[in-house]
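Why do we bother with holo predictions? Because pocket geometry can differ from the apo form. Keep that in mind while you read this record for magnesium ion.
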Amino acid sequence: MREDYDVVIGLEVHAELNTNTKVFCSCPNHFGSDTNTNCCPVCIGLPGALPILNKRAVELTIKAGLCMGCRINDIAVFERKNYFYPDLSKAYQISQLERPICIGGGVQLDSGKFIRLNRIHLEEDAGKLIHKNASIGTLIDYNRGGVPLIEMVSEPDITSADEAVEYLNKLRNNLVYAGIAECKMEQGGMRCDVNLSVKKKGSNELGTRTEMKNLNSFRSVQRAIEYETMRQIELVEAGGVVRQETRKWDDEKGESFSMRSKESANDYRYFPDPDLLSVKIERDLVEKLKAELPKLPMERRKIYLEEYSLPEYDVDILLSQKEISDFFDEALTYYNEPKTLANWIMTEVLKYVKTEEEFKMPLKAKELTEVLKMYDQKALSQANAKSLIEKLINEGGDAKELAKKYNLINDISDDAVEEALKQIIEANPKAREDYKVNPDKISTFFVGQVMRATKGKANPDKVKELLNKYLN
Ligand code: ADP
Ligand code: MG
Ligand code: ZN
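The structure, written out:
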């Protein structure tokens, strides 16, 4: 039954922009302030208050368009989308319909498939309703009202939950890497509406779609798509018809339910906002913003895989945070061994990152490469190289100085290592006997003892060689 149908999905993704202030007033754009403290007559819609467009918000929207390969319109227009809801005290949202800032573009998936974007436009966010118990009722926090929001609308090119999640990830990574939006889904910084329809396999005619709202994690997007696909297929199979409607996803129940029949653009009576001039976007500005963009994840991925020949697994970890990728790229300028560097970062650096805090690399890229150079020159044993990294992370400062301070530099002679080993063999007659039966296990014991006696300065391979000489 499931195999007889194609799924068709289009996503509308909202992301809050990384500006200091709101989009039409100078109130702070800040999550987590006391309720109703980041508000003024403009963003709560008092009569006579006039909006003033935040230039930075326009610039970040243009940048988002450039990241996704959109065309940037010469003239952009703000329009009023009229509707009443308690979180929108003006009874209209300033948005864009006919002339958004960005047109077209899209995102390429790893399979090579291209998901087209229809547009990216700039609008204002609404306030937030806080539903309390029956005696208190619902409270309203207008702090979020007027926060700049971009809406990225895809064409209905997505055909599975996995594609939807990959598309969302790529969209988000671009925005985060370029400093456009933080996309913290748990704070509502990125939200997604899923439009979904089903059709008989191979048919060219699209089915009627439903729109699911309230999806605030990738997991709920995935689950909601799977649920809605089956609901529609079962409905159609039972002889029913899908109604065009807006549905609300309930993450706890794992079900969606109907909220209202779907409204169309006409219902909102969009018209150009008479309080705002249309915006002329100069090509010079677009070029300047383009030059400011960092290398995007897709491009880095290609370099890591093809130029540096890193395995997919490493590449995914390095790209999982911009901070890791930037650190890696910087370190490579001092130490041009991509695979070695990736290994040390993955095993010896990332384990110190505290995941519960804001992501930050725990030491300077340059200092890590100093450690690796000392290790390569055999000035540090592997154990001491690891310990030096830990000390750099705890204390900061300079790799060479810390190595001296903690006496980690390999200044031990071969004779001294041999002497230490001889003494340990003497002192452990039982281990000496066991070695004959189980050389691998017991050699680990001897190497450990020698490392301890030499404060980690001996070379373990050298110790194994000597063990062979004395015990075989
Ligand atoms: P609206 O403004 O009413 O939400 P849009 O035309 O902007 O309508 O489309 C919203 C989203 O729905 C887009 O992402 C689009 O790709 C998607 N979409 C349109 N038709 C279908 C369909 N038949 N099945 C699935 N998604 C669709
Ligand atoms: Mg819509
Ligand atoms: Zn304000």
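The two ends are 70 Å apart (CA to CA).
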